[in-house]
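ping. complex inputs:
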Amino acid sequence: MTENLDRKGLISRRRLIGLSVGGVLVASLGCLPTLAVAQEAMDQAGFQALSQRLTGRTVLDKVISDRAFAALTAEDAGFPAAAVRLTAALDQAGLVDMREFKQFAAANPELAPTAMKIISAWYLGYTGTPEGEANHDDARFVAFAGALMYEPTKDVTIVPTYARGHTNYWVDPPATLATD
Amino acid sequence: MATEFDADVIVIGSGAIGSNAAHLLAQRGKSVIILETGEWIPRWKIVENFRSSPRKNNLNDPYPTFPWAMSSFDPDYIENTGNFHYVPYQLLLVGGTTWHWAAATWRFLPNDMKMKSLYGVSNDWPMEYSDLEPWYDLAEYNLGVAGSDTDDQSGHAGAAHPPRSKPYPVTAEGETYYFQRLKDRIGKEGYNFIHEPNGRTNKPYDGRPACSGNNNCMPVCPIGAMYSGDVHARHAQNAGAKIITDATAYNLEKGEGGKIVAVHYRSSKGADVRLTAKAFIVAANGIETPKLLLFSDVANSNDLVGRHLMDHSGISLIFTADEPLWPGRGQVQQGAIFKWRDGDWRGQHSAIKHAPHNNVPNRDVAEMLIKQGVVGPELDEQIRHLSARWVVIESMFETLPRATNRVTLSTTKKDALGIPTLSFNYDLDGDEYVEKARDLCMDDYGNFVRAMGGKVINDKTGWQNHAHVMGTVMMGDDAKTSVTNHEGRTWDHDNLFLATTGLLPSSSVLNPTLAGIALGLRTADIIAKEV
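pong. complex structure:
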């Protein structure tokens, strides 16, 4: 069992390396489908690697990743199997640049929602559909300060409750205004 | 032989209104007991509940709900029979619902209190503005309200209005860049931008720190810069009042001569306790107050308790501007846009308050983009681009008191203590007074979007709830048409007082809590002279 997990971990790390070097990516693509075939069930490391691919991040927090995987699996017992199929299809399509995801989604309509669920969990920090005026729903917590939706603006605005400024800092526009 | 009482005054509810009233009474040397259904909960726990919740858009979610103290977001607690799904948002813990308000602390205008005699609609208040003015002062100083001493809050760009005998205790905070730009461009179209007086102190005040822009006034300010009722619950306690938690008042016991002689409360642990006092103040929110009166069968000889429920029902607009404004820096809201604030037209349609919201918009933006299937580098680019330009305007309308809009006891459900839950009937259908205002509001929205070179994201929201509960235990001059007199004293029981926004007999377009606190302080002062 331990050996099995390690092997999968290794695969994931290799894939991570492949993704992280950008320009070399195409060269390493040839081996990806072979490696993916070895993956019969989705595990935490495999989910993290898949998440990195779908979010275009070279590094993603493992605690958040494990929580997202658990939440998506709790929501839908078929999720791990769908994630395996998605990984294989991404490998098959050789998709490494998310700018080409639209074509992939059109070609794989049954797998695109799984990809969007993973992206949504990472960006929004929850799975399911939160209710605004009721306390019963299927929403599950994934992340708050680590939700990717805050990354693009982190130099200008805060994650609520984590103030970095002082009283009245808000009267001035941010330094980046001219290029925003 | 002299009668012995458990307290001079028992206050039911430890929210901002009850705690301020209890504090004044304790300061005057009265023995005071406060009964609270919920518990003391430290701020950090609520903040952590918020941070680890998947439903950040849910204002009640970080707060407790129990089978004996149910959140108003519990479907087992609220049923609706009208076309509008009314949810009152009240919280059950020490400090009450001001844990999650944005602390907008406007004063009603003198004209707001004379709607019937000036405009022929709604009701007159059973008092003059000048009767309430000193109590507004005290309320503002208790809360550390930040405000502008020069704005004309009637929206006519005239001299400072309404009149005040003291300056605001805290000067207005600096205007956000976002607000400055909206004011500059939309202001040119004939709209008045007014600073919103608020209980979010921007200098150290009464043990509270200055606001540093945590942008989370709702559902919880993480540092307590924003006022919440627990401040005066603590002050009342320090002044000698006794707070009993896990104590749900369920019966006001009637005695001879129309007096209330005791209140009975239950705890989740099975205790059933009877307490006596010379006077009683029910300060249990505009919804829970009528519930207690109805279940006790008191103060309701004219069948008006729970009726005339008014809210500032409204609509909202989301658009993106043609320049980066960067909302999300500073507090979640800062001012109001007035065109339809006060005038002779109030006989024909609602007044309107537009409020630009200043929340960090990333969640709304990212949810929209992901729903559209945007992924990859474009998703990050669009989150930044749209978050910089995101504008949300929430608009509230004055509603009129309608006897059929009401809260009643559920006839089918009870909570764990055996107390009936709530049933609402709230309906705006066919109400021309608000419908006309909605048309004008849509014209304003068109002007706002045009002035900002904007692109509409959503301008078809339907009626929205603002949980500004008014009218349910209306005060007035006539025992036939109101529940209390101007003192908050019930017509039926001369030692039973109500202190709640439910007293307000007309709604204006202003967040009612400050008026509720001022009325409660005035009531406490009257009681202090009697007991």
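The mean pLDDT of chain B is 97.
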